[in-house]
Amino acid sequence: MSILDIRVLGDPILREETKEVGEITDEIRLLVKNMFETMYLAKGIGLAAPQVGRTERLAVIDVDKQPIVIINPEIIESDSKTSKSEEGCLSIPDVYGDVERPARVRVRAMNLEGEMFEIESGDLLGRCLQHEIDHLHGKLFVDYLSVLKRRSAMAKWTKEKDKYPGFIRHLDSDPARSHEHPDEEL
Ligand code: ZN
Question: Which residue segment(s) compose the domain that 94 sits in?
């Protein structure tokens, strides 16, 4: 088991498209295990492969003490109604913003046994699923902010980013972990 470094905003990998996972190998199983450990240590509720410098199309989520692995996930239905709520991201520590998203989504994905499953949620889990699937396509929550909100988020980030040389967040010496966050990070 090892704790992985988290890539922060500015690392180009966060903007790359991921690659579909073919078969579930030991390497994938180990990656998932390490991603869960890393996410729990960072006190996050979701973590996508590009956030730890990987290109596999997969993410881990644990919103309510229920660990979920989504491999090659796809949103197959989304509500036309939207809801707005504050989001944060382990890759943009200490920056938050209100994001409007479909209120409910249905996702199809593969699990670690290689089986397809579907999951539907209109709660925090639904928001988390959308946030993580965005990561797998190079999209970040700040992309949804209005011009003004985005500008102030980026101004805040400009002050924060120097804490992460090389766009790497080492969790064992992490400035953002030293205090409690009001919000959950994805
Ligand atoms: Zn995120």
Answer: 6-179
| Catalytically active residues, by annotation | 132
Q: What's the CA gap between 34 and 69, in Å, rounded?
A: 12
Q: How far is the CA of 134 from the centre of ligand 1 (A)?
A: 8
Through-space distance between the first and last CA atoms of the chain, rounded to whole angstroms:
21
Total domains in the chain come to 1
Is the pLDDT at 178 greater than 90? The verdict is no
| pLDDT tens figures, 105-143 | 999 999 999 999 999 999 999 999 999 999 999 999 999
Beta bridge partners of 46: 61
Ligand 1 centre distance from Cα of residue 186 (Å): 4
Tell me how far the alpha carbon of residue 70 lies from the centroid of ligand 1, in angstroms: 15
Look at residue 1 and tell me if it is in a domain: no
